[in-house]
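Hey, weird one. I pasted the TetR family transcriptional regulator sequence into the form twice and got a warning about non-standard characters only the second time. First submission, copied straight from the form history:
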Amino acid sequence: MVESSQLTTEDGLRADARRNRERILVAARAVFAEHGIDAPMATVARKAGVGVATLYRRFPTRDDLVRAAFAQQLRTCAQELTAALVDPDPWRGFQRLVETTCEQQRAEKGFPAAFTADFPMSMTDHQRPLEQAERDLATVVRRAQAAGALRADFQPSDIAVILLAHAGLVAALPEDGAASRRLVAYLLQSFRTGSSNRPLPPPSAFAPRDLPVGTQPKARRR
């Protein structure tokens, strides 16, 4: 009779190795959310209940661990970039790319830092190397501009600025989806050519006094 730990899964891993891998990824997401993606690998291993050697055997580098921990979110962003390239409405493709990427930033607390730290590598997958991701992002921008929908002075690098701004909001107000959606809507409307009467999403319910400690402006000295 074959021991359960000797059984292999569809990805070729033994069952026990598969369990270790999943524990590491769950622990990594929790540690990255609390301490950032520069947290010690030993902290991840300790939280996962495995040895550091086991962690490095599964994920030789920090980048390997970060990309595996947020594989679902990264895959969604890469798929949305592909969809934006062929959307018959170039503005809609651009808009959905920004909205979906920001949604992924909001969905997992550790993901914003991981994504922005590695942008535009975050838009890659096994079929799209970094250079291609950069070209594809530029193409999405050019298509929307050629359609007369995106302001002519918008640059592909501005997408990174959008994501950095949104990552800051998510870090300050991680549970406030209304604030996130409203910021993204404000930004997208500011990028459109001409004026837009499209209504904004409902406003956030938070008040300035609700800001986390350290983000409120200091009182001016007399």
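That's the output from the first submission. The warning seems to come from a hidden character in my clipboard, not from the data itself. The radius of gyration is 21 Å.
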